[in-house]
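Researcher: Dear colleague, please comment on this protein.
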Amino acid sequence: MRYLDADAVLSLGPAGAVAAVVDALRDGLDPAEDLARIPVGLEHGQLLLMPSQRPTAVGVKVATVAPDNPRRGLPRIQATYLLFDPTSLALRAALDGTALTTLRTPAVSVATVLPALPDRPLHLAVVGAGPQALGHVRTLAAVRPLATVTHLLRDPVGGPVPAVRLGSPEAAAALGGADVVVCATSARVPVFDSSLLGERVVVVAVGSHEPDARELDGPLLERATVVVEDVATALREAGDVVLAVAEGRLRVDELVPLREVVRGTVALPADRPVVFKGVGMSWQDVVVAEAVLRHTDTGR
């Protein structure tokens, strides 16, 4: 059994992680068949078990979510990943699960929206400055040059990266001129007024996996093509989707599974916004964990 630390996990690189996700989906992986996440409520947060199986591997991520950790100087989400042989179920490797999550979440986002990205340097607006926000910047930079990157925060003073204040004229200008907007926050209510966004913007929202929490407002989902990892999972966990449906702004039959986009069976229209709402699914971890192990073994 091997242990792969954060450096080993991240050595796969954003482009390698995107390729692993795309290849798995094009080879027939169906997210609708994935095993469900198992949440366990704790006194100071939440424990998540995320099992998945493929013909080539079985794996499980054990993650904790501690909302007060940032005040302690600790990550909000911490995790370990265990990868097993699919036949003997012997443990093959343990991986730094926090690094794996940081790598695989933006890889899934970018694999999904890649067909909708303009073929030129992008103007990017990022709501948030945590690991997922920065991971999305790195992963987008692996597939397109970035002309500008603007981080938007409620309180930009003393933040980890230069940022503008949400609600300011500078934030409105960044959102209005963005080709891509990434939302990676712990917010439970919309983080901006979507009327600021252009008609061809691509929006990625990955900050929550609870049915009563949202980063995006209903009017955006009403005018956008909405892509999700899996329809049933989105209706169970994606508050942005659940609340828009409840408001009558979005119909369930309008939701587009990401598998159809990546496989090319559904084309994303160019004349309206595209929204990808991700909550994180177990298949994503096992796909990228296998790619990490293969990369550390072969360098490919």
